[in-house]
Amino acid sequence: MAFGTQDDTDEVMNEINMTPLVDVMLVLLIIFIITVPVMKHSVNIDLPVASNEVQISKPETLRLSVDAQGRYFLNETPVADDQLAPQLQAAAAKNPQPDLHIRGDKAVRYERVAQAMAAAQQAGLRKIGFITEPKK
Predict the structure, then answer these.
(1) One-character DSSP codes across 78-108
(2) For the whole prediction, is pTM greater than 0.70?
(3) Which of 25, 72, 123, 136: disulfide with 89, CB 3.0–4.6 Å?
(4) 33-49 confidence digits (pLDDT tens)
């Protein structure tokens, strides 16, 4: 056996061997023949009919404003300090519970805004937000 010579057994194949490809295709065909009837078999059931309408109910928004003198306004209506907590409790009892938006004047003492927040928390309001003006 010498290097550089070519024997008859070392011939290069010029064609693709189709046998493995045909074997794979036959196996896939058998698998599909078996599984298609299984996928179409189902149990007949009379399902109930229901409406599919989306019901969007937005909760109302309470606007609690605190002016520069420290007075409270609930939805632009003046409210005395002793009447603020009962009105917030009545609002918290509603279903769905309204959102509370607090608008505080920049000249008001923080103590007045903190008292309003504490009254809202004690009343049971869970959604409290602050309204501010964007910088210009």
Answers:
(1) EE-HHHHHHHHHHHHTSSSPPEEEEEE-TTS
(2) no
(3) 123
(4) 888 777 666 677 777 77
Q: What is the dihedral of CA 19, 20, 24, 30, to 10 degrees?
A: 40
Q: Are strands 99-104 and 77-79 parallel, antiparallel or unpaired?
A: unpaired
Backbone φ and ψ for 123, nearest 5 degrees, come out as: -75, -20
Assigned token pair, 101: 């938006």
Residue spans of the domains in the chain: they are 61-130
Query: Rounded distance, CA 96 to CA 88, Å?
Result: 14
Tokens read off for 113? 């805004």
* Domain at 61-130, CATH from 2.60.40.1120, 3.20.20.20, 1.10.760.10, 3.30.420.270: 3.30.420.270
DSSP SS3 for 70:
coil
